[in-house]
Amino acid sequence: MHATLDHTMMRVEDLDASLDWYQTQFDYEEYGRWEADTFTNVFLGPPDKHEDGALLELTYNHDGRTYDFGDAWGHIAVRCADVYAAYDELMAQGVEDYRDPDSCGGQYAFVTDPDGHEIELVERDHGARWSLDHTMLRVEDADEAIGWFTRKLEYQLFRRGEFDDFALYFLKPAEAAPEEMSVELTYNYDGRTYEVGDAWGHVAVQADDLQGFWDTLLTRHAADYRDPESCGNRYAFTKTTDGHEVEIVTN
Q: 166-173 and 200-207 as β-strands: parallel, antiparallel, unpaired?
């Protein structure tokens, strides 16, 4: 089981505005689209992304609903060569000033998209510019959350940071290419709880054999949330112990 991270899904209230923002600010191109009666899914990424690089999925529901962010999802992170230069470029293009590099110790920065999803800018010497580096999830029990990803998906912990009041843990499949997206688990020491909300949807992992992958997850006591049959045998969903949805898709 390799379980490459395929995409992260977020819900948007104005699809045209969101597409314009990502295609203008990050030069993303459209990799795929699914038009259904009640919703539209659009998959975006940089034109030169790695073959195992992740995409961003924008979901637009046609009923005009609004969304609650909650706080169980944190952000996506995109790669750049120089965080100061990247932030200045985005400011010059009219992106709203949110958290500049100086306010983040000069190591990273944050902007927000038109719906308010947070996007971290991180310096990397690998991967296409603006490609997805990681998706951050907040967890209430670090040991349990790490155990879920390592046991259910066979992920490996490849980087960690232990600080005075919080800890960060980065995981992705064993032998993953540097350009593949990872998950960042953020654990705050103060015992807080989190609300999932609905502005963020899921992270998705790839499977060569959907049913076989699903059966393995169930033998490892993953949550039986939406099985392949209930999804037309096109995909399936489980949940982490913190309630984050994880979609299983075929390559």
A: unpaired
Active site residue 120: yes
Measured distance CA(66)–CA(176) in Å, rounded = 36
Decide: pTM greater than 0.90: yes
| Positions of E strands within 71-218 | 73-80, 108-112, 118-123, 132-139, 155-162, 166-173, 182-188, 200-207
CB-based contacts of 69, cutoff 8 Å, min separation 6: 116, 197, 199, 200
Q: Which residues pair with 44 in a beta bridge?
A: 30, 56
CA–CA separation, 58 and 72 (whole Å): 19
Output the CA angle 73-77-82, nearest 5 degrees: 155
Put residue 203 in one of left, alpha, beta given phi > 0 → left and psi -120 to 50 → alpha. beta
Radius of gyration (C-alpha) of the chain in whole angstroms: 17
Q: What is the pLDDT of residues 41-85, one digit of tens each?
A: 999 999 999 999 999 999 999 999 999 999 999 999 999 999 999
- Within 13 Å and on the Cβ side, how many CA atoms surround 110? 14
Residue of 120, 179, 180, 247 with catalytic role: 120
**Positive/negative CA dihedral, 116, 134, 126, 162:** positive
**2 has pLDDT over 90:** no
What does DSSP say about strands 118-123 and 73-80: parallel, antiparallel, or unpaired? parallel
The tokens of 55 are what? 């995409």
